[in-house]
């Protein structure tokens, strides 16, 4: 949640490109992906 | 493609859903009941026509603004493991069957509050169902390449809508006990969720690799648009604030929307299924949104300069390449996202209508006097009729009010209206002092703001050009509260939530609820403690040895009788 908050997402709000794509898109999707992985790992650990 | 052929495809598709629902109901095998993925997929009823068509339109016309609707849920979903587990427990202990039950029970099982909540849900959801019908009928005309008929009776799409209304009113009312699990319908919804994702992936791959030369090709060509850079960044800090508020709207919506409440709470079979949903559902949304981006920009490239509705790029692109198969598949994907939303929303609304509005205020006396069997039949009939009536009402709403507005704006208004329930909802879970009076005043105040701020302007303008007379003066008087850097919807959300939450807290703190409210407040807030006592009271979870039982029996019955009885024990 913190990672999506305004000040932090605005850091990436430039028209620069990373890997050929806009930074903000890469950033948002990366945070999204990471959050999935984190919850997956936590849930699996919790199970055992 | 001719209308008849498409009509039969729809019919066939509905029959398939029917079959799946029927099989799942009949078999009840462990694979179906214990499958956490079915639960997680059924949550994807969140993705409606709005996602399927509307988001593509938003992505093409205003860029990043399509994302908050999905980022919001992502922000709140990890908290589900705590929040939803508690709600599921509370609902199971109290046999809760709908959102209205859940909130009103906490505030002293109040009949009037549950009626108000039912009306709020109706206000928010009927236009939302209307939006689905709009999507179905417009895509139906697009695929068959027929013009929209002015006369409702001769319009082909009308028949499709009536068909869906019949389907859901039959299927939604198989059970009278509203808290019972509908395994069949949930399996059908899960299948639909899978299919709509599958079809959008097919379309995405089609656009990326057939229409264009890979993802980077679309990107390179699209970046030549003048507004591309502007669309793919926040519009300064103002844009970012709007964006953030949209995230908050959708974060509350995913918890409180009646259909989400139904799939996530009422239909939850095992608490541990929530754990799978926590990572699976965000993954589902991620795949969905990733494909929206190339489809939207690919569509803009193909139809650059032509006047087409960007919301229907997903149908228009395969049609542009004369690919009937993919067009029909995409249409079916859109259809399934609409149908699943319509069915679940109509079911939960009809439960609320019958349990919280029609029966308590009209039929209670009558039901008491009649036999149980008769009651069951009349309750089912009320539900059947209300599902059918709801869908027809939504259809009328679409015909008169939202013919020209975009899918996105109608959906967001529904979200803001439903978000008015948020203070009472979350207050119920975490705050002991929250009281009935506070909940009602906050809710009503928030609703009034929404009504004048969003609903009137939205639908008034579909008939008039500008405000006239008294209404205009009234709006001018409130001009002071306009926040210049927020758009209309985030602004109204901000004001209504501020007023709603503060009234809720102030009134709750200054008055004391009656004993019933306080009783339920303890139950809701301390559900973990309560559920242990509750279970201890009914099920004794220990081990007993036969020899111990024999000893006790001997004391009561004597040795001879004891040995005869203990044969049964062994």
Describe the protein.
The complex is a heterodimer of chains A (48) and B (570). Chain A has 48 residues and is mainly alpha-helical. Chain A has one domain. Chain A contains 2 helices and 2 strands; from the N terminus they run αββα. In chain A, strands 1-2 form a two-stranded antiparallel ribbon. Chain B has 570 residues and is mainly alpha-helical. Among the domains of chain B are: 3-65 and 119-235 and 257-403, no CATH class; 540-569, no CATH class. In chain B, 78% of the residues lie in helices and 0% in strands. Chain B has helices at residues 3-27, 30-33, 36-43, 49-62, 68-76, 80-94, 99-106, 111-144, 156-171, 183-211, 215-222, 228-231, 236-256, 258-266, 273-302, 313-320, 324-369, 372-400, 407-419, 422-430, 436-460, 469-477, 488-510, 515-525, 527-538, 546-557, 559-569. The chains are: A mainly alpha (48), B mainly alpha (570).
């Amino acid at each position: 949640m913190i990672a999506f908050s305004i000040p932090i997402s605005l850091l990436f709000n430039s028209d620069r490109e990373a890997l050929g794509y806009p930074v903000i898109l890469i950033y948002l999707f990366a945070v999204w992906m990471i959050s999935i992985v984190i919850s997956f790992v936590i849930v699996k650990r919790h199970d055992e | 493609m001719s209308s008849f052929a498409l009509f039969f495809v729809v019919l066939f598709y509905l029959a398939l859903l029917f079959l799946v629902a029927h099989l799942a109901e009949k078999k009840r095998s462990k694979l179906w009941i214990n499958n956490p993925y079915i639960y997680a997929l059924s949550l994807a009823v969140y993705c409606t026509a709005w996602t399927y068509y509307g988001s593509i339109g938003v992505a093409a016309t205003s860029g990043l603004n399509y994302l908050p609707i999905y980022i919001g849920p992502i922000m709140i979903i990890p908290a589900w493991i705590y929040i939803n587990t508690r709600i599921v427990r509370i609902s199971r202990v109290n046999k809760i069957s709908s959102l209205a039950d859940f909130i009103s029970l906490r505030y002293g099982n109040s009949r009037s509050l549950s009626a108000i909540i039912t009306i709020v849900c109706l206000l928010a959801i009927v236009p939302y169902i209307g939006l689905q019908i709009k999507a179905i009928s417009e895509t139906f005309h697009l695929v068959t390449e027929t013009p929209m008929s002015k006369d409702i009776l001769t319009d082909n799409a009308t028949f499709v809508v009536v068909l869906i209304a019949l389907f859901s009113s039959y299927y939604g009312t198989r059970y009278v006990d509203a808290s019972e699990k509908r395994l069949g319908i949930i399996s059908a919804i899960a299948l639909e969720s899978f299919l709509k994702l599958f079809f959008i992936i097919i379309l995405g791959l089609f656009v990326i690799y057939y229409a264009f030369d890979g993802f980077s090709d679309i990107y390179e060509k699209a970046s030549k648009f003048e507004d591309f850079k502007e669309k793919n960044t926040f519009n300064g800090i103002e844009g970012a604030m709007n964006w953030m508020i949209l995230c908050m709207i959708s974060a509350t919506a995913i918890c409180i929307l009646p259909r989400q409440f139904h799939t996530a709470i009422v239909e939850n079979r095992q608490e541990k299924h929530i754990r799978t949903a926590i990572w699976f559902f965000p993954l589902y949304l991620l795949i969905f949104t990733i494909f929206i981006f190339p489809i939207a920009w690919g569509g803009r490239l193909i139809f650059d300069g032509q006047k087409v509705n960007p919301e229907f790029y997903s149908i228009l692109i395969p049609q542009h390449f004369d690919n009937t198969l993919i067009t029909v598949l995409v249409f079916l994907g859109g259809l399934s996202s609409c149908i699943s939303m319509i069915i679940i929303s109509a079911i939960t609304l009809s439960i609320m209508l019958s349990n919280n509005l029609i029966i308590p205020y009209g039929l209670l006396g009558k039901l008491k006097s009649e036999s149980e069997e008769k009651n069951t039949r009349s309750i089912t009939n009320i539900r059947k009729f209300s599902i059918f009536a709801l869908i027809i009402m939504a259809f009328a709403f679409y015909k008169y009010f939202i013919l020209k507005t975009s899918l996105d704006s109608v959906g967001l208004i529904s979200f803001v209206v439903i978000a008015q329930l948020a203070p009472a909802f979350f207050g119920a879970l975490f705050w002991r002092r929250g009281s009935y009076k506070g909940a009602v005043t906050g809710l009503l105040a928030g609703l009034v703001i929404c009504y004048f701020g969003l609903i009137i302007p939205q639908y008034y303008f579909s008939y008039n050009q500008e405000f006239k007379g008294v209404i205009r003066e009234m709006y001018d008087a409130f001009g002071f509260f306009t926040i210049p850097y927020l758009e209309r919807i985030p602004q109204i959300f901000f004001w209504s939530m501020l007023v709603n939450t503060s009234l809720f807290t102030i009134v709750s703190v200054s008055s004391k609820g009656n004993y019933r409210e306080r009783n339920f407040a303890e139950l809701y807030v301390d559900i973990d403690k309560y559920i242990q006592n509750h279970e201890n009271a009914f099920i004794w979870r220990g081990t007993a040895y036969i020899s111990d039982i024999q000893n006790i029996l001997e004391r009561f019955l004597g040795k001879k009788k004891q040995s005869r009885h203990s044969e049964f024990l062994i």
